[in-house]
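User: Please predict the structure of the protein below. I'd like the answer in structure-token form so I can feed it into my own downstream comparison script.

Assistant: Understood. Taking the following sequence of 236 residues as input:
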Amino acid sequence: MKRALSLAKRALPLALLGGACLAPMTGAAQAQEISANVALTTDYRFRGASLSDETLAIQGGFDVAFESGFYVGTWGSSIEPVGNSELELDLYAGYGGTVGALSYDVGVLGYFYPGADDVAYGEVYGSLTGMIGILETTGTIAYAPEQDNLGDDDNLYLNLSGSAPLGESGLSLSLGIGYETGAFGDLDGDGDDKIDWTIGIGGAAYGVDWSLAYIDTSEDTDGSDATAVFTIAKSF
């Protein structure tokens, strides 16, 4: 699961990149796999905008997936301080499966900032993934209902992303475009909703996954301008 997570949540789809170990569990539900990941990125970009003040961020998490299709997990990243917190901690649960040639993923996600008051919020998400030629394409929707910590507003994010291998080089090309409206949809206050886009290349070397991406948005703020982001990650 990538938490469709990363929901394209992350600037690059680096969460839960593979590697799993079987773990016996008691009760009706048996875990199919437990996976973990750790990453270092030059800038934590969330839907195009920097949450680490355009500096290095350390990230990581783990997932527990069940044979039924249900999963639970957590993911965290260092961030620019939010109140008294320098940590974003995400908790999520969902269900994934396939219908014909399409795979789907639906779930709920909470964003928490330990040590800071009145900033945590939640959203629901869903995604569909299928092949268009050699391009693996994912459409994602994430919706945060109206809630106090969003200023009594709601938020909607739509994303379309794809990836394809670059011949037999072992490299892959990734593309993505997103649209956001609501509580986080107008960072520069000009009245227009936010659009973000990315193009990147990635591969594996020396036992780690790496990616380099160009990321930009329609917003005119210091943390949402064009940048190149380099990330290395390891999954277990």
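That's the full token string. The first strand starts at residue 31 and ends at 41.
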